[in-house]
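Please, structure for the following, as tokens.
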Amino acid sequence: MRLSRHQLLQLNKIKYLPGKKWFKVASMVVVILLPIWLIYRWWGGSQNNVNGSTSEVLSSNSQILASTPINVNVPIPVLDAKGVSLGVMTMMVTDAEKRDEIIVQGKKANALEGRDFLIVNLKIINPIASGVGVKTRNYFRLNVNGSSDWLAPDIHNDKEDNGVEVQALSTKNTRIGFPINETDNSLILQIGPIEGEKQQVPLLF
């Protein structure tokens, strides 16, 4: 049976109509969902950036494997842009801990097999009426097993440009740390500014 031209046109319309409807529906779904997705991505990304920017290194609730007191105070003179003294901050180095687990930027970090984290706890006191950044990683070096090398902390809360921000007239608790071997039996912590007096403290766990 042969179909007329009119019948063929109608058949083609019927044949492609579902596709057109699907395209229209898909377009409407995209128009509705795309703004929602963009808002979610923007908000979620902003939240992640806020959390990540703190770079906080925190001890976890895991058991402390060992600890030892240090109790060393480091004066930190603060000068303005013209070199005039604004006052002196104090960094109290309270103690050191061995842990196999810490929290870094809100995520759990486990030491590799045969390794531990050496965490040094600090308290920075700012008696000045303005916030001050302290690059804590510049104040510590670690000697392991009598080596000639002095290691800088791999774990710290310093921001790249300004270090740890200590607000005016406040105290900031923070930490620095080193990955070490479980078998390391001689640990000497050097404390002090890059240019200035330093103390070497054996860590007796």
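The two ends are 98 Å apart (CA to CA). The chain has two domains: 1-53, 57-202.
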